[in-house]
Amino acid sequence: MDGGVGYVDVDALKATELRLGLPGSDEPSEKPPPPTTTTTTTTAARPSKRSLDEDRAARREPSEGGRATSTRATKAQVVGWPPIRSYRKNSFQAMKTEAEVAGLYVKVSMDGAPYLRKIDLEVYKGYKELREALKDMFKCFEGCKGSEYAITYEDKDGDLMLVGDVPWEMFTSSCKKLRIIRGAEAIRGLGSSQ
Amino acid sequence: MTYFPEEVVEHIFDFLSSHRDRNIVSTVCKAWYRVERLSRRSVFVGNCYAVRPGRVMARFPGTKCLSVKGKPHFADFNLVPHDWGGFALPWIEAAARGCPGLEELRLKRMVVSDESLELLARSFPNFKALVLVSCEGFSTDGLAAIATHCRGLRELDLQENEVEDHGRQWLSCFPDSCTSLESLNFACLKGEVNAGALERLVARCVNLRSLKLNRAISVESLARILVRTPHLVELGTGSFTVEHRAEAYQRLIHAFRKCKSLKSLSGFWDVAPRCLQSIYSICPNLTVLNLSYAPAIQGADLVKLIRHCFKLQKLWVLDCIGDKGLAVVASTCKELQELRVFPSDIYGTGTAAVTEEGLVAISSGCSKLNSLLYFCHQMTNAALITVAKNCPHFTRFRLCILDPGKPDPDTNQPLDEGFGAIVRSCNDLRRLSLSGLLTDTVFLYIGEYAARLEMLSIAFAGDSDKGMVYVLNGCKNLRKLEIRDSPFGDAALLENVGKYETMRSLWMSSCDVTLGGCKALAAKMPRLNVEVINDRVESDEMEENPSDMHKVEKMYVYRTLAGARNDAPEFVDIL
């Protein structure tokens, strides 16, 4: 059944469509408008829960920057696209989940603070961000003994190292826990590292 | 023909290695049919439902190597429901009854149960090689049966199967007397294996040339294994997770240096970029390199590695190699014949990893390229035309532009001309996969020029029935046609029904074919099985008698001598 040149009123179709699924679990509300240049066929007598013409209409459109989000959402629903073997897809999914879930949580202790904190090193892009985050985290304990402090960490070999000497990636892969040293000890340490 | 004694005819047939040639000579006369069938040692069944297993064994009682394929190709992308079919058991049972001398079994996209593996293990005293590709339905228990009972096993090759993990003891089931293994590939297994048993096994199998480990194998274990297998030609590493300052890493480098025969590398699941240096010494000898499961390696590190690989013939990488990385491949790997570039970020916003530039660079540097699988974010007609000119030797050309229906970004035109150039220039093209915005015109070109085309994959392409008809009428060597989400309907389906008996199969999903059309096809062509595969949920809510106007979600048509299969699940209707 061929329609003429024109477009299908997607929203009207959607309203009358029979579909299975939990209420509210619907396709994304942002839908790109159907194209006006390609022919589409009408969905005659088709009790299908998935409106393929909608999908097709959405896909036919040349993707533009502004529609990136909606195209991406529609893309994610297209079964079996891109054509990658499930084995490969599953391997990547597993790897990604591992990376996301694991995080790189290390304890942070500060001299004089009654309790420790934990941070995820993977969240930070570099030393600057890390320092700021730590400062923020422990600012309630500052003030009494002045603001001289040094951030150190314990590495894989158990040695106490000054944060900042090695490249960031090397640091995150070898850091086991962080320790903020304050007061005289810190000043002494910093001085000798010059 | 009657001049030669049968032994002479048989001897002449020995020189015919291709199945097709042997099939043809068997049709010359009864005498040749008989000689051929008794002397056939290697049988290939491209569609397990095209013929009954018993019939195959009866015709070829001397079968030593049997190769069977099950589900249609689109099953790889979850388009075929889980219990559709493709069971290996009937084939193994028939072989056990009719060809007990069987030595090799190769199965692809089939459902293989532990029961069938156990039967296999016990039924063939001379069994030497088992190759399972993209199969499912078995566990490590089935593997244990193979290891235990197949004395003299030479090859156990498990490629990308879904295997249930029931423990690590299967490997330990290889008896101490087993020394015959030449090839062992268990890369797809998720579970752990007994490392000690593995090390002892590889040590006593002195002819072992191919070993592909799974991700659970540590670097420490790998180093120990390599020390015992210095003659390895193909290696799939384990996880490759190691600190570059660790002693294990040093031992690994040392072990690699001893492996002077290594030509093929794969694995590298979790490798840290720095640890790639350990294989620099092997790279100059490599002909095959598969880094497609190593997303942690970015472009720059890949490039450093590839600069050492000037003998490379086959390269599989992720698109994080980037266009610049591909340019390095082009300038370094002059012997390259096959390239596969997989997407690393499937649903991402698409920071353009590789584009048409990378492909053009490859084509201008690697003139021997004949096989391509390329996932990219965009492609232009100009680029494809250049590629077609640079590489006229393509036999397999599969291009996947990640955004369905995307036009040429420079001109906003469909990619008809680009693909047209490919089919015009590459006279030996046997396999083609299309993507991007395409009109009926591309199919006109394909029908006209792709004379040797055997397999065509179409997705989100075409404007009307004419497109499909061009292909069916034009490509005289077409064997497999698979189409999804394209506006081809009953008129196209029924235009040239005789064509389907010259092909292995036709798959159409999310197209405009109706139930009435399928019924008409089935009625006209009794030697085709026309399967209508309904979405599970749909078949639950569907009325008793769906109208003929109802569009068919998935249709699979194939020629067959076996009639309608009796193992179809309830959501499959065979018309």
Itemize the secondary structure elements and their pairings.
The complex is a heterodimer of chains A (194) and B (575).
Chain A (H helix, E strand, L loop, with lengths): L1 E4 L4 H7 L22 E3 L10 H9 L7 H10 L8 H17 L2 E6 L6 E4 L6 H12 L10 E6 L5 E3 L5 H7 L2 E6 L1 H10 L1
Parallel strand pairs in A: 3-7
Antiparallel strand pairs in A: 1-2, 3-4, 5-6, 5-7
Chain B lengths: L5 H8 L5 H7 L4 H10 L2 E4 L7 H7 L5 E5 L19 H10 L5 E5 L5 H10 L5 E5 L2 E4 H10 L5 E5 L2 E3 L18 E3 L9 H10 L5 E3 L6 H10 L5 E3 L10 H12 L5 E3 L21 E3 L8 H8 L7 E5 L3 H11 L5 E5 L13 H10 L5 E6 L4 H10 L5 E6 L14 H10 L5 E3 L6 H10 L5 E5 L5 H10 L5 E5 L5 H6 L9 E5 L5 H10 L3 E6 L2 H6 L12 E6 L12 E3 L1
Parallel strand pairs in B: 1-2, 2-3, 3-4, 4-6, 5-7, 6-8, 8-9, 9-10, 10-11, 11-12, 12-13, 13-14, 14-15, 15-16, 16-17, 17-18, 18-19, 19-20
Antiparallel strand pairs in B: 20-22, 21-22, 21-23
Main sheet characteristics of chain B: 21 strands, mixed
Low-confidence stretches of chain A: 1-8, 26-75
Overall 3D shape of chain A: elongated
Q: What's the shape of chain B?
A: globular
- Oligomer class: heterodimer
Percent in helix of chain B? 25-40%
> Per DSSP, what share of the residues of chain A sits in E-state strands of 2 or more residues?
15-25%
Keywords (chain B): Auxin signaling pathway, Nucleus, Ubl conjugation pathway
Domain F-box (chain B): 4-45
Protein name (chain B): F-box domain-containing protein
Subunit structure (chain B): Part of a SCF (SKP1-cullin-F-box) protein ligase complex. May interact with auxin and auxin-responsive proteins.
